[in-house]
Automatic annotation (TrEMBL):
PANTHER family from the UniProt entry: HYPOXANTHINE PHOSPHORIBOSYLTRANSFERASE (PTHR43340:SF1), HYPOXANTHINE-GUANINE PHOSPHORIBOSYLTRANSFERASE (PTHR43340)
UniProt GO BP: GMP salvage; guanine salvage; hypoxanthine metabolic process; IMP salvage; purine ribonucleoside salvage
UniProt KW Ion transport keyword: no
Necessary cofactors: Mg(2+)
Organism: Labedella endophytica
Keyword Metal-binding: yes
GO MF annotation, one: guanine phosphoribosyltransferase activity
Top-level taxon in the UniProt lineage: Bacteria
Subcellular location: Cytoplasm
Enzymatic reactions: GMP + diphosphate = guanine + 5-phospho-alpha-D-ribose 1-diphosphate; IMP + diphosphate = hypoxanthine + 5-phospho-alpha-D-ribose 1-diphosphate
Protein name: Hypoxanthine phosphoribosyltransferase
EC number per UniProt: 2.4.2.8
Length: 183
């Protein structure tokens, strides 16, 4: 499919590139203040959080390290299976680390609640979550997320790292995927 057709596969643009960048700078300023004098370990959840991590990390002024975890709970569909599998574990030891999990989106919250429980058992000094997007109406478990970019409606979204069947991650905005694409 030609890239010029991509816009026909989207309905609304929910969050623009400019809104994302402004919000990430705002969150980064809060994070810098909250972690002043501390080394932060940013843990990006692959693959959706790649863009958030890249832009958030570059807006931070303090010392950070980055690590990555790959988990899967979705397969090729648009609904969480609730079954989380580790595809790639962290390289870092979390003992006594200040961990900030960087996520693209909190949907049902199932993935993060599983990750938080998993990380808590590894002896971190602190664990917080930064998520660019959150769908309050889709929550199946409550997640204590300290840094949230945008609350969005309960629709399947793509772009800025978020995919449907590995496509659309390269879009600069976050948009609603047209139902005709997946139904
Ligand atoms: P849960 O439901 O466990 O979501 O909070 C976990 C992961 O699923 C992906 N996800 C989405 N991906 N559009 C996407 O492209 C969406 O609307 C969406 N909702 C969830 C995402 O990777 C999230 O971390
Ligand atoms: Mg994700």
């Amino acid at each position: 499919m030609e890239s010029s057709d991509i816009r026909d596969e989207l309905t609304d643009i929910l969050v623009t590139e400019k809104e994302i960048q402004d919000k990430l700078r705002e969150l980064a300023a809060r994070i810098d203040e909250d972690y002043a004098g501390k080394d932060v370990l940013l843990v990006g959840v692959l693959k959706g959080a790649v863009m958030v991590m890249a832009d958030l990390a570059r807006s931070l002024c303090g010392h950070v390290q980055m690590d990555w975890m790959a988990v899967s709970s979705y397969g090729a569909g648009t609904k969480s299976s609730g079954v989380v599998q580790i595809r790639k574990d962290l390289d870092s030891d979390l003992t006594n680390r200040h961990v900030l999990i960087v996520e693209d989106i909190i949907d049902s919250g199932l993935t993060l609640s599983w990750l938080l429980e998993n990380f808590e058992s590894r002896g971190a000094a602190s664990i917080e979550v930064c998520a660019l997007l959150r769908k309050p109406d889709a929550a199946k478990v409550q997640i204590d997320c300290k840094y949230v970019g945008f609350d969005i409606p309960n629709e399947f979204v793509v772009g800025y790292g978020l995919d449907f069947a590995e496509r659309y991650r390269n879009l600069r905005d976050v948009a609603v995927l047209a139902p005709h694409v997946y139904s």
